[in-house]
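Dear all,

This email documents one entry for the complex benchmark we are building for the journal club exercise. For each entry we list the sequence lines for every component of the assembly. Then comes the predicted three-dimensional structure of the complex as a C-alpha cell string, followed by one or two observations. Please use this as the template for your own entries, and keep the labels exactly as they appear.
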Amino acid sequence: MNQVWIIFKRELASYFATPLAFVFIVVFLFATGIFTFYIGDFFRAGRADLQAFFVFHPWLYLFLIPAISMRLWAEERKSGTLEILLTLPIPIWAVVVGKFLAAWVFAGIALALTFPVWISVNVLGDPDNGVVIASYVGSFLLAGGYLAVGAALSSMTSNQVIAFVVTVVVCFLFMASGLPLVLDALSSWAPQFLINTVASFSFLSHFQSIQKGVIDLRDLAFFAALIGFWLFVNTILIEQRKAG
Amino acid sequence: MSRPLIDINGLAKTFETIKAVAGVSFSVDKGEVLGFLGPNGAGKSTTMKMITGYLTPSAGSVFVSGYDVVHDPISAQGEMGYLAEGAPAYGDMTPLQFLNFVAAVRGLKGADKERAVAIAVDRTQLAQVLHQSIDTLSKGFKRRVGIAQAILHDPPVLIMDEPTDGLDPNQKFAVRRLITSMAKDKAIIISTHILEEVEAVCSRAIIIDRGAIVADGTPAELAARSRYQDAVTVEVSAKDAADARNALKALSGVSDMLDISLDGDMRGGGAVLTVFPKPGQRLIEKVSALVTQKGWEVRSLVAESGRMDEVFRACTTADAGNSEVNQ
C-alpha cells in the first residue's frame, strides 16, 4: 500500500511539473462552460439545476480523458523509464493502481474546479443540492471508468497518438451501447436479455441513473467492477510484455 | 559451497523468430567485475534485461543472491542496482526528486533515505545539479544520475549497461574509479564497447556474439590469445632493412613476420618489422641479442603484448549488427 502511495505522489506531481495540468484544466473548464451555457442553454432553461452542465460530461470525457490516460504508460515505454519501474522491487499491480489513482485524482481536481457553476446556480435559485452532489459523484466515477480503459490501452503501445485514438473508440463503444443508436439496431432481432446486457454495459445509462440523484448500489458496483477489470487487464498486459 | 551472487544457467531469449540470446551460462561472485563485451546486437542488453527481471527468459534460470529472478523478482530486484541502456530517468524531475523517489520505492525512509541519497550524490558528483530538471542536464550528468540511482541502496549486485557511454575522458576515469572502489564487496557486471575499459576495471571478461559466449577469461588471458602476445617490433633504418628482414625471418621461434616498408617516408626510409612467435616461444631476448650482434641502426625495439581488440575481432562476426533486436 505504501508503494502505491509513493507511485501516486510521483505521478500526481508529474502532472503539475509541466504545463500539461494547467492546459488541461483550462480546456476542461472552457469546454464545460461552452457546453453548459451555449449548447445546454443553461440560462434560458429557467431551471435551478445543473442538468445542462452534467448531461454533456460523457461526451466531454470521451475526448478529454484519453488525453490524460494516453501518456500513462506509452510515455514510460517511449522514454525507457518503464525499465526503471519494472526493475525496482515493486509489484506491477502497485504501479498500475498508483498511476491510475493519480490520474483519477487529477481528473477529480479538474472536475472540482467547476464549483463556480454550482455556486452560481445556488445564487440564482434553489437547486436540489443532493442531486448536484450525486451528479458530481457520478461524473467522477464516469471519469474513473474512462481512465481505467485508457490506462490499459496506453500500456499496449509506445505511441501516445495511437493510445488516444484507440481509447476514444473503445470508450465510445462502451458509452454508445446504451444509446438508441445501438439498441434500436438490436431490438428488431435480438432477445430482450441480450439488449438488456448490452445496455447494462453502457457508461451512459449508469451515469444517467446516478445523475437523477439516486446513488444505487448497482451503479456503484458497475463502475467498481469496470475499473477493477480494466486495471486487472492493465496489469496482465504489462506482465505480458515482459515475455517479449 | 555457497552459491555465487549471480548465477545464470542456460539463459535464452527468443523474440518471435529471432534468437537474441541462445543459452548463456556463467556466474559472478563477490569481488568480481565482469566485463560484458560483444558487437551491437550480440545480446548483451537482452541478457542484462533478463538478469534484472525486465524481460522474462524464454528458457534458463537467473539467480541473484539466491533469489530466482523469474519466480521471485521482487526479492531479487531488492538485491540489485541497475543502470539501463541509455540511463533513462524521469525528465521532469530533478535528480534529488528522482533519487528520493527511487529510494522510497526501495523502502528507505527518513534519515536512512537522506543518508543513502547523500552518499550516492557524493560518489557520482551530482551536487551542483541536484535542483535542475533532468531534461536540462548534459549527457554526462544524466548518465551519472542513472549510476547514482543504481548504487543508492548499496546493493550487493550491480548491473550496468554501458556505464561510461557518452562521458568525457575525465568522467570516464571517475566512473571507472567508482566501479573499482565498489568492486571489493559486490558482484558487478558492466557492458561496454571500450576494450581498454575492460583492461582497466574488469577482473574477468566475457565476449558474446550472436547470443552465445565465445570467450571467457581474465582480460590478460583473453589478450594472450592475440598473436601479438610476446611479439617483437623493430624499426630499422634503410641501410639495414634488407639484412634485418632476412635475419629476423630466419630466427628460430619465429612463425610469421609483418613487414611495413618506410620507403618514401619522411623519416628517411627503413622498415618496421614485427615478428610473431611460435606457440610458447619468447622472442625479445633473441631479437635484442641479434640487434646487438649485427650492429643495426635501430630506431625502436618494442616487446608487444596481447591486443584485446584483435581478439575481439577474431571472436566476433562483423555482421552481427544486422540482427540487432531493440526490445
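Observations: Chain B has two domains: 6-225+314-323, 232-304. The first strand of chain B starts at residue 6 and ends at 15.
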